[in-house]
Amino acid sequence: DIQMTQSSSYLSVSLGGRVTITCKASDHINNWLAWYQQKPGNAPRLLISGATSLETGVPSRFSGSGSGKDYTLSITSLQTEDVATYYCQQYWSTPLTFGAGTKLELK
Amino acid sequence: EIQLQQSGPELVKPGASVKVSCKASGYSFTDYNMYWVKQSHGKSLEWIGYIDPYNGGTSYNQKFKGKATLTVDKSSSTAFMHLNSLTSEDSAVYYCASLGRSWFAYWGQGTLVTVSA
């Protein structure tokens, strides 16, 4: 199984600031990576697939990058509505696996 | 509008079983696999498996083989997940998700399953 490691369980962030969330796979996943946003009580929301492709309707302040085993989700000009938990997910091989999540908290 | 509408919360006794449904609308049900994902309280997400509504073919996470059984009813565009021999470890929110190619573009609202005597 491919393990997905999000090194930060929590990140303390400032409104208007830039946030970078990292995700490392235990094996190469060839950009077969998705990012999700989840707010309490809600289902996850797909933000990015293919490591870099922004889903329709997702604000352009979100972006994804990376290759091989290492991937990042960046948020510029953080807004209040971006405070949530973010998960990465690999779909290179089954079982499909998720990171443990990174929860953003306001400073 | 694409929607995945799941059945309501369930309170079940240990050892019992439960069947969760997910009714799809707004797209061609048989064109996309239906995935199921578990989220235990305060925890991350686990992929349970998927079913191909076109032919009923399934793939399961080894961890959930024997625990979950996925089926569909094409006539009503509804997917089902049957969970058996429930224990407290099965208490969680269960989601259906679809319209991705092994990623999850659309999600149901989740079904809370609570296992308690």
Question: What fraction strand of chain A?
Answer: over 45%
Helices of chain B, by number, come to 0
Q: What would you call the shape of chain A?
A: globular
Count of strand segments of chain B: 11
**Poorly predicted spans of chain A:** none
How helical, in percent, are the residues of chain A? under 10%
Distance between the termini of chain A: 36 Å
Order of helices and strands of chain B: EEEEEEEEEEE
Q: What is the distance, rounded to the nearest whole angstrom, between the alpha carbons of the first and last residues of chain B? A: 40 Å
Question: What structural class results from the helix and strand content of chain A?
Answer: mainly beta
Total strands of chain A: the figure is: 11
Over the alpha carbons, how many angstroms does the gyration radius of chain A reach? Answer: 13 Å
Structure description:
The complex is a heterodimer of chains A (107) and B (117). Chain A has 107 residues and is mainly beta. Chain A is 0% helix and 48% strand. Chain A has strands at 4-5, 10-13, 19-25, 33-38, 45-49, 53-54, 62-67, 70-75, 85-90, 97-98, 102-106. In chain A, strands 2, 4, 5, 6, 9, 10 and 11 form a 7-stranded mixed β-sheet that branches. In chain A, a hairpin with a 3-residue loop joins strand 5 and strand 6 (53-54). The model of chain B has no long low-confidence stretch (mean pLDDT 97). The N and C termini of chain B lie far apart (40 Å). In chain B, strands 2, 4, 5, 6, 9, 10 and 11 form a 7-stranded mixed β-sheet that branches. Chain B has a 4-stranded antiparallel β-sheet with strand order 1-3-8-7, with no helix packed on it. With 117 residues, chain B is mostly beta strands. The A-B interface holds A 32, 34, 36, 43-46, 49, 55, 87, 89, 91, 94-101 and B 35, 44-47, 59, 61-63, 95, 97, 100-110.
